[in-house]
Structure formats: C-alpha cells, structure tokens
Amino acid sequence: MKKYLFVVLLAVGTVASAQTTSDLQKHYEAFYKEMRLQGDVNGVINALTHLNVLAPSKERRDTLAFVYVNSNQHLQALNTIGIEKNETDSDLAVRVKAISLKALNQPKRALEQFEILNTRTPSAYLAYELADLKIQTGDNTGAAINIEYGITNAKEDMKYAFYERQQPYEVPLKAAFLHLKGLVEYNNNKDNIDAAIASIDEALKLDPNFNLASLSKQALESRKTQPEAKE
Fold it and tell me: Which residues are within 8 A (CB) of 4 and not within 5 positions of it... i.e. 6 or more apart?
C-alpha cells in the first residue's frame, strides 16, 4: 500500500511539475511579447533567458545573442552562442559572431565569420568588412580583391558609418572603399605615397567631410616630409 501511494504521489508530482513548467513558459512568452512592445531591452533579455532555460531552442538562443549585440553587450552575445566557426550556424548566429568578434578586437576570428556570410550572400557591405579585416591581419592582396569588388558594386545610395569621432557619421560606401584602397597601396609600396594619397583624395572628393580619410591623408603627408619616420 505504501509503495502504491509513493507511485501515485510521484505521478502527481510529475504532472504538477509539468504544469508549472508549461505555465511558466506561457508567462515568459507573454512577458517577452510585452517587453518587445515596450522596447524594454533588459526585459526582452530577461524573458529570453528564462525561455531558454524552460524550453531551450537554437532560435531563441540566436535571438538572445542578437539582442545582446544590439545593446553592445558583445561578450554576453558570444557567451550565449560561442565563437567557433560553424558552417551550420544560422545567418543570424554567424552575423552575431562576426560583429561581436570584430568589436572585441579579434580580427582573425571575425574574418572567419564574415567569410561565411559572404559565401552565402555576397554584398558590397560584406566586402568592406572583409577588406578592413584583411588589412588588419596583413592580407593586403586579399583586401585588394574585396576592395575592387566593393568599388564596382557600391551603389550611390549605399552609406557606411564611422565611429572614431564622438559623433558618428556616414560616408558613401564607395568613398570608404577608396580610403581602404589608399591604405593597401601604401602597405604594398611605402615608397610611393603619392599613389595612396591620390586614392584617398578620390574618397574625399565624394565626401569632403570624411574625417578618417582626412586623418589618413595627413599621416601620409607627414611621412613624405619626414622620410626617416618610415624606418
């Protein structure tokens, strides 16, 4: 009789637990929707975290990581989905890894993720990220290929944002590529600074307020007047 009673109690407890889990999941699903409507990022993160505990799914995990990225919480994003190169990752997961690794100054790892995205859906924007990262990692030949693709495929209405100033600003994407072209030309031949400056001047013609290009031009001009600085 005691054994039978124990089995009954165990069964009742299991059902109650299942009901509790189900109720909690419904609660956090409703909570998630409400937080999204209110634009409460911390609330969205809270809801998704609980849902991933109650009913884990790859889609929810990727979404949570994406919310972290949009909040500039890049370490938390990578802690959520990892940093490994995985060809089976969703586009969203790969993009999260790429953006966060770049933001955390991990150019080699970021490059792997942007390469996956570019293989799936090539674009001028991805070409810019690839070129920028390849310059950082010393692959000027590879960067030059991405730059030429970008210059050819950048449309007039395409813009790229820069954040080196206190106030972010945008320039034509083609101008951004021309700036990178000047950097690659300098890296490939430091004795022909004029060629690098000419490419940067093309970028400045497209947008005279391109601050980063202006800074690069000033640095190159200073090297012309002080050749010993090249050593």
Answer: none
- For residues 44 and 60, the answer to whether their CB atoms sit within 8 Å is no
Sole residue written with tokens 């100033």 = 165
Tell me the residue type at 210. Answer: F
Q: Which residue has the tokens 């975290």?
A: 49
For each successive 10 residues of the chain (231 residues), what is the average pLDDT?
Answer: 46 49 86 91 93 92 96 96 94 97 97 97 98 97 98 97 91 98 96 95 98 96 71 45
DSSP string, 133-158: HHHHTT-HHHHHHHHHHHHHH--TT-
Give me the DSSP letters along the chain: -HHHHHHHHHHHHHHHHHHHHHHHHHHHHHHHHHHHHHT-HHHHHHHHHHHHHHS--HHHHHHHHHHHHHTT-HHHHHHHH-S---TTS-HHHHHHHHHHHHHTT-HHHHHHHHHHHHHHS--HHHHHHHHHHHHHTT-HHHHHHHHHHHHHH--TT-EEEE-SSSS-EEEEHHHHHHHHHHHHHHHH-TT-HHHHHHHHHHHHHH-TT-HHHHHHHHHHHHHHH-GGGG-
Task: Show the domains of the chain with their CATH numbers.
Answer: 122-231 (1.25.40.10)
For the whole model, what pTM was predicted?
A: 0.85
Measured between alpha carbons, how far is 93 from 86 in angstroms, rounded to an integer?
10
Question: How far apart, in whole angstroms, are the C-alpha atoms of residue 81 and residue 170?
Answer: 30
